């Protein structure tokens, strides 16, 4: 009896979780112009339409640029800070750790609003770079926390051995510490990429002429339901899922997280 | 040597620290100052004025947004915990060990859809001509389409969908760490299944619940997209007010004050559950 109830709950829960995804993907193959029942596909014409739209492909390129660029910066800064805080004790380091994590507890809207106020006050223009700066702010705490958490005595001993053998601090970092932390660094990088790739509100507030994909989708939403939106949505979902699966089956599997 | 060490430690940490100070702390302080500034016509007058906060407390539609946001956030947090707990428990206790990770991964995969897309997908499901209405009409439960989209119901549904996945993750992570010995001991001492749950499992899984609920609260109260796409124009939430002030009127002071009030609720939530929070163990 309890097994049946468990199964039933599992099925209902998965039905609820996947309902919007299935509807989104299914009606992206709709033949007619409205993505609602009855389904009259399958047709690939909306994918054709969307991938041939330069606004959409430009936005897609911008999104990838911002995602990869901001993640690289976030991971480098996060790694260096984690190394500094894990290997050296200095006054105020607990406070600094707290400060680096702090942006996690603030909603994206507030991060974006603060930056927008400063940028407009200083008379600086909005662009993909300003959106990228915002994305580093939200991804740096995660990158730092992930890398910091996987630093331990194992690498420290190897570092000490390398130093005894005459390696400079830079060589220690590049040839000893970083290679040993590849799983954590990769996890931090891919997580940053997925979060930045999907991020809307900061990009919306901090871009103007060149916009990212979520912002482009937002502006298309104004004209209501359309199979074109389903097609873009399915592509975006596919890319996010691909990144998550890569992460799951390569990096995290080895760490037995 | 010690002095040298100190310098090196600072040197490695400095870039991240400078970034956080320049692009997070400083803007945040400017935003606080902005919330005490005044807008006269189009000129900004800095100073320590409480006008924006007084306006928030006295204008009915602004006050209403605070109430609406809190109501939605509480409903969503509560419903998500109640729905996610059994799912996490079933995955942790009923699904065979070597399948657990896979089932969990599958259960939270749509979590990674962009939130704009996710809200749009719910709009498709709940629209007047959408799947739910069509199905209900086809089975004869209703004759005319009912209004599901552009309502608080739609906003709450969209939110719950997202946060059930988040909470399943945090609660599951907590449940699998519990040794089965606790359950076995309680059973040996004569507890029935409900008593084991009520007095053993539930108290031990509180950190997972509270951590997830806190994250839900923070993300839900600060989200602009879901209510904007799904909620319609009948009622606005705090983030929507912030965006309206920014867009239509460029009233940065009032938008900042609203954002600070939002932050205040998040801080209150943090203080209320700090005892059980395990943010470091996520």
Provide an overview of this structure:
The complex is a heterodimer of chains A (257) and B (282). Chain A has 257 residues and is mainly α. Chain A has one domain: MetI-like (MetI-like fold, Orthogonal Bundle), CATH 1.10.3720.10. Chain B is an all-alpha fold and 282 residues long. Chain B is globular and about 70 Å long. The model of chain B has no long low-confidence stretch (mean pLDDT 87). Classes of the chains: A mainly alpha (257), B mainly alpha (282). At the A-B interface, helix 1, helix 3, helix 4, helix 5 and helix 6 of A face helix 1, helix 3, helix 4, helix 5 and helix 6 of B.
Strand line-up in the sheet with most strands of chain B = 1-2
The CATH superfamily of chain B is: MetI-like
* Share in helix of chain B: over 70%
Hey, roughly how much beta strand do the residues of chain A contain?
Answer: under 5%
Order of helices and strands of chain B: HEEHHHHHHHHHHHH
Rg value of chain A: 22 Å
The number of strands of chain A is 0
| CATH class label of chain A | Mainly Alpha
**Mean of all residue-level pLDDT scores of chain A:** 88
- Point out poorly predicted stretches of chain A: none
Shape of chain A: globular
Percentage of helical residues of chain A?
over 70%
| SSE order of chain A | HHHHHHHHHHHH
The number of distinct structural domains of chain A comes to 1
Oligomer: heterodimer
Distance between the termini of chain B: 37 Å
- CATH topology annotation of chain B: MetI-like fold
């Amino acid at each position: 009896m309890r097994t049946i109830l468990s199964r039933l709950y599992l099925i209902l829960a998965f039905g609820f979780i996947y309902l919007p995804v299935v509807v989104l993907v299914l009606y992206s193959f709709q033949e007619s112009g409205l993505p609602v029942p009855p389904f009259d596909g399958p047709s690939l014409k909306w994918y054709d339409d969307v991938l041939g739209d330069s606004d959409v492909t430009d936005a897609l390129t911008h999104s990838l640029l911002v995602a990869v660029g901001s993640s690289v910066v976030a991971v480098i800064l996060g790694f260096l800070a984690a190394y500094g805080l894990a290997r050296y004790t200095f006054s105020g380091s607990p406070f600094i750790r707290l400060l680096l994590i702090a942006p996690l507890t603030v909603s994206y809207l507030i991060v974006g609003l603060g930056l927008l106020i400063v940028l407009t006050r200083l008379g600086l223009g909005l662009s993909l770079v300003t959106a990228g700066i915002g994305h580093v702010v939200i991804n740096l705490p995660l990158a730092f926390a992930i890398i910091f958490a996987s630093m331990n005595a194992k690498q420290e001993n190897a570092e000490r051995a390398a130093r005894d053998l005459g390696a400079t601090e830079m060589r220690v970092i590049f040839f000893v510490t970083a290679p040993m932390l590849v799983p954590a660094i990769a996890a931090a990088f891919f997580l940053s990429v997925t979060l930045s790739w999907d991020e809307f509100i900061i990009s919306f507030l901090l871009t103007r002429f060149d916009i990212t994909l979520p912002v482009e989708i937002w502006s298309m939403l104004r004209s209501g339901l359309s199979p074109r939106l389903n097609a873009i949505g399915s592509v975006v979902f596919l890319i996010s899922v691909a990144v998550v699966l890569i992460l799951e089956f390569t990096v995290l599997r080895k760490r037995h997280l | 040597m010690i002095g040298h060490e100190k310098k090196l430690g600072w040197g490695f940490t400095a870039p991240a620290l400078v970034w956080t100070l320049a692009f997070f702390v400083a803007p945040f302080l400017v935003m606080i100052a902005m919330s005490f500034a005044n807008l006269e016509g189009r000129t900004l007058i800095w100073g320590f004025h409480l006008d924006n906060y007084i306006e928030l407390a006295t204008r009915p539609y602004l006050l209403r947004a605070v109430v609406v946001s809190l109501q939605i956030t509480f409903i969503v947090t509560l419903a998500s915990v109640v729905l996610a707990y059994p799912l996490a428990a079933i995955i942790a206790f009923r699904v065979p060990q070597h399948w657990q990770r896979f089932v969990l991964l599958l259960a939270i995969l749509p979590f990674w859809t962009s939130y704009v897309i996710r809200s749009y997908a719910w709009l498709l499901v709940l629209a007047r001509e959408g799947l739910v209405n069509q199905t209900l009409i086809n089975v004869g439960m209703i004759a005319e389409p009912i209004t599901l989209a552009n309502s608080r119901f739609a906003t709450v549904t969209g939110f719950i969908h997202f946060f059930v996945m988040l909470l399943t993750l945090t609660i599951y992570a907590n449940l699998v760490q519990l040794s089965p010995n606790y359950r076995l001991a309680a059973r040996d001492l004569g507890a029935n299944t409900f008593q084991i749950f009520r007095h053993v499992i539930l108290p031990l899984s509180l950190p997972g619940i509270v951590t997830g609920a806190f994250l839900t609260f923070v993300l839900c109260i600060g989200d602009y997209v879901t209510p904007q796409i799904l909620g319609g124009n009948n009622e606005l939430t705090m983030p929507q007010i912030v965006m309206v002030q920014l867009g239509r009127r460029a009233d940065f002071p009032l938008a900042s004050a609203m954002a600070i009030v939002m932050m205040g609720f998040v801080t209150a939530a943090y203080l209320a559950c700090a005892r059980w929070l395990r943010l470091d163990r996520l």
